[in-house]
Amino acid sequence: MSDPNGRSDHAFPEAQREGLYRAIFERRDVRSQFRPDPIPPEVLARLLEAAHHAPSVGFMQPWDFLLIDSREVRERVHDIFERENARAAEAHSGERGALYRRLKLEGILESPLNLCITCDRERGGEHVLGRQSIVEMDLFSTCLAVQNLWLAARAEGIGVGWVSILDQQDLAEVLGLPAHVYPLAYLCLGYVDDFLDGPELARAGWRQRLPLADRVHGNGWQAPPADAALTRAVDALAPRQ
Amino acid sequence: MSDPNGRSDHAFPEAQREGLYRAIFERRDVRSQFRPDPIPPEVLARLLEAAHHAPSVGFMQPWDFLLIDSREVRERVHDIFERENARAAEAHSGERGALYRRLKLEGILESPLNLCITCDRERGGEHVLGRQSIVEMDLFSTCLAVQNLWLAARAEGIGVGWVSILDQQDLAEVLGLPAHVYPLAYLCLGYVDDFLDGPELARAGWRQRLPLADRVHGNGWQAPPADAALTRAVDALAPRQ
After folding, report:
1. Which part of the chain is the Nitroreductase domain (chains A, B) (predicted)?
2. Inside any domain, residue B239
3. For residue A229, is it within any domain?
4. Do B183 and B233 share a structural domain?
5. What is the pLDDT of residue B61?
């Protein structure tokens, strides 16, 4: 890119930028396409390193990574899922309920590896820089690590699914977590037969992607963006699933 | 990559993978190096699209994007920061307190654009698929959108800084947010003179990166990973800042 203001001195070359955007747009929440092949240790190490390089409030790095390959532990986690999912299914009745029950919502036993990313709520002591106003900033930081790992996995050809239908207390007990360590994300990882070309919930007719233009505001809630050129640029984006 | 198990059918070509890892490892929380040049609308649209393609629980897409370029609004937000920061500084005394006061912790007025990413806690109705067990999953989803944007910005040569030293209630008032919309991330965006080669808090001696090997566990808290080859692979990672 040539820019008279030298704006893009630090921009990546085209292929590198493409790689990042591809990971973002082709990443999926995978529940069904797992293959049994194990993830080689070198690849897994890269994924963990990517997660570990997320930003964190006060550089507190509150995360830990628990790699769960034991069949027994996974069966106990799967039991927690089954209980919670039965409870959750009750919230949806009629056609919507029937659709809910048809959806596959986890791959705990089918994927070759489960990974729990936790948040140590006490790491860095009582006063973590930048965390006085919003005490949840440690949880938010841990989420950023999850997304780094998710994108890196996509680039490596590995699928990731986040199982959120779990009782956190029960999960903490199975994993032997101390009281100050919160099991933030329970992920299923593995190579996959394919990555779907759109989110599974959209394909199943559960919910569709919202138009981005409706989600962009200006200097206050529901104020239009000050620059009308932005609205045009959003409208001009290539359609994606 | 050739693999007898065909594991990597879906892996990206080298340059694309490199682009993603580069964004992950070279991304910074920027507070000081902002240039005044505006971000072109096409580039900004790409960043918002990247955020909008984050995963979200039940595909609820709870985020909204408020683009804040008004000087007046930013001055009001800056006032909130100043109040909160004075309060936070009191937690650190002695040498640590002196260091705290020397740190630059935001770029609200210097960056050409502020962006508030909010979380609509009611989007998708009362029963969002996958959110029954962990009601905060909507906030966590919004964090994943923040990280997508942060990485995309890095690839475009744009710096991002997250200002977490803000009273959320005061911020919501300035932005006119309804009660069910939570201002999750207040970000400063802009082209930068340079990206530092390590986190600013590490360079300033506030806190250093933790060894990744210490953060990796096996099938339970503080159990060693079942596969010793993983420990070796983690130890073999190239040193990074």
Report:
1. 25-191
2. yes
3. yes
4. no
5. 98
Does B70 sit within 8 Å of A226, measured CB to CB? Answer: yes
CB atoms < 10 A from the CB of B106, how many?
24
φ and ψ of A173, to 5 deg: -70, -45
Give B32→chain A minimum CA distance, Å. 16
B70 vs A201: CB contact, 8 Å cut-off? Answer: no
Same domain, A117 and A198: yes
In eight-state DSSP terms, residue A218 is: -
Using a CB-CB distance cutoff of 8 angstroms, which residues of chain A are in contact with residue B29? 55
Return the axis-axis angle of helices A137-155 and B137-155, rounded to nearest 10°. 60
State whether A39 and A79 are in the same domain.
Answer: yes
Question: B108 and B219 share a domain?
Answer: no
Complete DSSP assignment for A62-127: -EEEEEE--HHHHHHHHHHHHHHHHHHHTT--HHHHHHHHHS----TTTSSEEEEEEEETTTT-S-
Domain range holding A38?
A: 28-204
More confident residue, B8 or A39: A39
Min mean pLDDT across A125-129, A188-192, B4-8, B154-158 is at B4-8
Q: Are A72 and A103 in contact (CB under 8 A)?
A: no
Residue B9 lies in a domain: no
Q: Searching chain B, which residue's CA lies closest to the CA of residue A114? A: B219
Distance separating alpha carbons of residues A63 and A67, to the nearest angstrom: 13
Average pLDDT per 10 consecutive residues for chain A, totaling 241 residues:
60 97 98 96 98 98 98 98 96 94 96 98 94 96 98 98 98 98 98 96 96 97 95 95 83
The tokens describing B85, both together, are 């920061």
Number of domains in chain B: 2
**CA–CA separation, A191 and B85 (whole Å):** 46
Segment B22-38, tens digit of pLDDT: 999 999 999 999 999 99
Helix and strand numbers (H, E) in chain B are: 8, 5
Shortest distance between the Cα of A110 and any Cα of chain B, in A, equals 16
Residues of B within 8 A of A234 (CB-CB) are 45, 48-49
What is the overall mean pLDDT for chain B?
A: 95
B233/A53 touch (CB, cutoff 8 Å), yes or no:
no
User: Nearest residue on chain A to B55, judged by CA atoms?
Assistant: A29
Same domain, residue pair B78 and B147: yes
The ipTM is 0.97
Q: A55 with A112, same domain?
A: yes
CA distance B53 to B182: 20
B202 with B221, same domain: the answer is no
* Same domain membership, residue A188 and residue A223: no
